[in-house]
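Support request, please re-run this one:
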Amino acid sequence: MEQEKRNKERAAERRIALMVACLSSFLTPFMGSATNIALPSIGREFQASAIILGWVATAYSLTAAMILVPMGRVADIYGRKRVFISGLAIHTFGSWLASSTPSMALLLIARVIQGIGSAMIFGTGVAILTSIFPPNQRGRVLGINVSFTYLGLTLGPILGGVLTQNFSWRSIFLFNSLIGLVAFVSALLGLKGEWAEARGERLDLKGAFIYSLSLVFLISGFSRLPTSFGFILSSFGLLGLFIFLWWESKVPSPLLNLHLFRQNRLFAFSNLAALIHYSATAAVSLLLSLYLQYIKGMSPRTAGFVLVAQPFLMALFSPLAGRISDRIEPRLVASTGMALSSLGLFGLIFLEAESSIQSVVASLAFLGFGFALFSSPNTNAVMGSVERKFYGLASSTLATMRLIGQMMSLGTVMILFSLFIGPRAIEPAIYPVFLRSAHVGFIVFALLCSLGVAASLARGRRSIQR
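Re-run finished. Output below.
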């Protein structure tokens, strides 16, 4: 009788953990994509320049990138639930502050606060799911969790546009704070256990500082490529990361355990595959958005409905892909997904002014389905390859690979625009040149994604999950 009661309590806690993890996974991508839609309205209210508006998006992602890995380690040492719930509270407060801000300066501060909360959520949500669910169920729940990430990406532009048009841009942040409040209360009341298998180990504060500063230089540099200042910042960032790796090899309790990369082939190549996949795919929506609006003459809303085909399929098939990875080697499922993404990218190489919208949607369908097959099985492989005391670190490392890959992808497009288009505005006379730059971009991304299939397969067979 007592055992049955404990089983029911454990099952209830797992359901709540899945619910709050899914809500938090929805929050951050929704916030990012919805805010991008609201930027023109924010600019008009505060009479902000394009550079300042760019910082509305950058302040959030840059802050999150700085502390993702340190927060993962903090969670392993001091408790994943504690960090997760604190992150929800901080992100919710930042969202509320942004919804009521009277100035652009305070809005940027609110975005930094949101970035801190986001890093704490992303560094622990997946780790909690991995801690609380048995190995034979992880793929399924991670797939469900990933699908909510893509649901946030799907609904962000649509719901964000509706909220901005009917209630003002502030309603986006208020909506986000309400969801965050629900997740916070549910986690506070429903999560009973705590997970801190690295409790008692020291936190490498010097390593955290070197890492965070290096990532600021690296991501800031990529966002400014191909200017000389961008190359200088990126070089400093890479140098800082080499110093960080040297430091981590010397300290007794490192922030990033390099043995995970040196001696754990599955962990190392799964993270490399994630970095490559995001580097090859993140800028596709930017190129296609410009193509649909400039070359095809679509309105932003119509173009958004075309582009939503990719995240919709990602959200639809991610739970299935996660479930499959519980039964079949994750590397095979993830590698198949990356191969499908490569096919979608190869299809876009032949994009012309006369190309049909159906062909664009078909390529997006390959990308969406490929991404679904890749993402949750790859996450399953990463989380199943490490000891329990590294769950937070593994989760945050994977999130960092995603963020760096996205910045590298966008940096590649900026370099191509500089080489082909230069400082000129995109107007009818420039359309052929824009198409050539897009062709080269899709060729680079398709080849990179094809090479990523080899990296994905090279990870080896799944080790025994703990």
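The chain has three domains: 1-203, 204-250, 256-461. The mean pLDDT is 83.
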